[in-house]
Amino acid sequence: MARIGIAATDACGILAHPVETIDCHRADPIARIVHLAALRGIRTLVVGLPVRMDGSEGTAAAKVRAFAELIHARLPDIPLVMVDETLTTSSAAAKLHAAGRNARRQKAVIDQAAAVEILNCWMAE
């Protein structure tokens, strides 16, 4: 993982909004997530799981599951939920394009937008 998009809901848990993108080469992503969870009073962690189009899981999903376990070990009292992230980046890019933003030149923005899509998928369940 090079970057991790972070999104959160409003205080009522109704609307998802982008928070930041963690550059994994410049910061410890687990420490940053732990900090953000404490800062924002997070009650549930939602992690996007890269599932293949046929529904199976590959090495990317295994890496994300291992990463999620590390987060959960640091935040054992916060429930952690895995959500299929299939096509969330494509959906986010399309929405950014429709809003007049060039997603290809703004990878950090698209990561946040994809995180919003993942969070919205979880809230819709």
Tell me what the structure shows.
There is one protein chain. 46% of the residues lie in helices and 20% in strands. The protein has 125 residues and is an alpha+beta fold. It is built from 4 helices and 4 strands, in the order ββαβαβαα. β3 (45-49), α2 and β4 form a beta-alpha-beta unit. The model has no long low-confidence stretch (mean pLDDT 92). Strands 1-2 form a two-stranded antiparallel ribbon. Strands 3-4 form a two-stranded parallel ribbon. α3 packs across α4 (107-124). The protein has one domain (3-124): Nucleotidyltransferase, domain 5 (2-Layer Sandwich), CATH 3.30.420.
Write the layout of secondary structure elements.
Elements: E1 3-9, E2 16-23, H1 29-40, E3 45-49, H2 59-74, E4 80-84, H3 88-98, H4 107-124
Helix pairs in contact: 3-4
Quickly describe the structure.
Helix content is 46%, strand content 20%. With 125 residues, the protein is of the alpha+beta class. Helix 3 (88-98) packs across helix 4 (107-124).
